[in-house]
Amino acid sequence: MCGIVGYVGYRDCTDVLVSALTKLEYRGYDSAGIAVFENGKIAVAKTQGRLSDLTNKMETEGKPHGHAGIGHTRWATHGEPSDINSHPHSGRRVTIVHNGIIENYKQLKQFLIDNERDEFLSDTDTEVVAQLLDFYYDGNPIRCIRKTLHELRGSFALGIIFSDRPETVYAVRCESPLIVAQGQGEVFIASDVPAVIKYTKDYYLLEQEEIAVLKNGAVQFCSLHGRMLEKELLTADWDEDSAEKGGYPHYMLKEIHEQPTAVKTTITPRIEDGLPNLSECGITVDSLRSFRHIFIVACGTAMHAGMVGKYVMEKLARVSVTVDIASEFRYRDPLLTENDLVIIISQSGETADSKAALNLAKKRGAKTLAVVNVKGSSIAREADMVVYTHAGPEIAVASTKAYMVQLSVMYLIAFEMAFAKGKIDKETCRALTAELVSMPQVIDDTIHHVLDICQYISTRLISAESLLYIGRGLDYALSMEGSLKLKEISYIHSESYAAGELKHGTISLITDGMPVIAIATQNTLLEKTVSNIREVKARGAMTIVICDEKAEIGVDAADYLIRIPKINEMLMPMVATVPMQLLAYYTSVNKGNDVDKPRNLAKSVTVE
Ligand code: M6R
User: Fold this and answer.
1) Each residue's pLDDT tens digit, 470-497
2) Which residue's CA is the nearest one to ligand 1's atom 12?
């Protein structure tokens, strides 16, 4: 939700913190701040607004100089975005940055007030933590962190500095992610690896309630009880370039173009002798045969990938699949048994509700499988089995390539399960797998083919106040993602609807010129979808139809046609996704919006 960083080394600390925070702005960007040891004292600079507002402020008011410090970019949870609510927050001797949420901060605040600690300036939960640390600080940082953590409920990662421990940064986490990166004579903390990849690829994953002490360019780890810990040093398998825009005006456009490679990298290692083979991820053929019911649980775009997964798994493997929004699943007391498989899909692997759903599934004895993009993330580590999607870092808040690779994994699982259960024979499984293997090229062709038309059609969307995305079957599953993508970055109200359901109420919304984007890639349902398109067109809608190059759809139904390659209709979602992404992208660009950082959103939703 927020991004935190810290540095101890030989470089100018402010420059390092600002550079690292730039890479974390995708996590939140309504205020930014740093705290640096300057001549033995803690100097703080912070402001409401973006990181650029902070750098402007430091240019006019002077920037702190030093070699150790912490930084923050915020997505407000407690208290409006304002200078005073910006991090870092301080007690008398302690200054902190925080990512996450402290659920019991009100009780803790009362406890502090009752103990004559009532020096609160902000509305944040974070300031309460700073004051609590201060309350417990008796000159021993580890003891004070332990006592404080004992009191805190919620999810958090903290970067902490103590005024009487100059040039030293402490870090601790509970639920919220945090890494410690080790360079030559310098050491960093960050919410995510891309923040510091420019300086080093070597990093440690900080585990629950482990403390990192950064000093003299090196790090030591200990438990809450002060026991020293040895940790495995990991190396990121991508470099700075893959986390940069590489000549594209926005990360989102870059990430759309990266989809062919992302799919190829994800599926290639999971195909053997022309057939899917997920055994390396812990999925055995026997287990695939045995599940009574499959639950797919996720949030947002990842949940939409699950919707496609449901259609495909049910159709091919004849197993019943339920798709749940994680925030609902965790509280709806689902009927889980030991014979069920719960698939959690998450790009970040840190989404709070998805993580809670995973824990619930484990508690109830179901088998759990994570489909996750970020290596070593909480969900990946906690699930029984994990299939990593290899999309590389996804920076734009609007998910594109992560969705595409999630789809590719849904197909791999469906094909392998259908074959394992004897619902399709080897040749059919091989043929389907071969079609999946050809997808990177098809996606690449589609991007180039539809780019101009999507750019043009987007100019017809920018003045719309509201629009509908419709489809049937797999196209309906897809329309949910198209609609989400468009609304989250264009700020145009959009709803997705099962095309056949329109006349049960929603068609009354259609007014003259209202855009309706119809996805019509399922040949078996084409006629029915076209009738629904005609129904809205007859009532004045401006219809935009995404269909394959051979579909017979005339001007009586479509004002605009976006033609995409015709392939096996089961795999059409991977192609039809492309124009949906580009329509959303160009509409946002044409409206002058901040495409990569849409308002009110954060990339990683690590709070409930
Ligand atoms: O990291 P996750 O995949 O768990 O994130 C889930 C959603 O928050 C995410 O897909 C969100 O809906 C995207 N902003 C959509 O573009």
Assistant:
1) 999 999 999 999 999 999 999 999 999 9
2) 300
